[in-house]
Amino acid sequence: MIDDASRHRSYCLLLLSHVDVEEEDLREQTAKYGLEDEIDALLCYLETHGDVDDDRLPEWDEFQELAADYEM
After folding, report:
1. 4-13: which pairs have CB atoms within 8 A and are 24 or more residues apart?
2. φ, ψ dihedrals at 41, nearest 5°
3. Which of 2, 15, 33, 38 is 20 to 30 A from 24, comparing alpha carbons?
4. Where are the domains of the chain?
């Protein structure tokens, strides 16, 4: 991620939610850059429909609106 801001995380979430990537490959790549915690939070967010305790992630409704804006 370019920045640790909520906006950038939202766009990472959009990308993760709509690309076909193997989780194991993704985790290998994030380990190279020391981003394991970040990817864990993003994947958990998507799997639980936003039910995570992380102020850096958008509310689920906000994420759904963003996805709708991009017709995803």
Report:
1. 4/56, 5/56, 6/56, 6/57, 6/58, 9/42, 9/56, 9/57, 9/58, 10/57, 10/58, 10/62, 10/63, 10/66, 12/42, 13/42, 13/45, 13/46, 13/57, 13/58, 13/63
2. -65, -45
3. 2
4. 6-69
Please report the pLDDT score of residue 71 as a whole number.
Answer: 82
Q: How many CB atoms lie within 10 A of CB 36?
A: 11
Quick one: average pLDDT of 28-35? Answer: 93
Predicted TM-score (pTM) of the model is 0.85
d(CA 9, CA 20) in angstroms, rounded, equals 18
Question: Is the predicted pLDDT of residue 4 greater than 90, yes or no?
Answer: no
Task: Give residue 45's Cα distance to chain centre.
Answer: 7
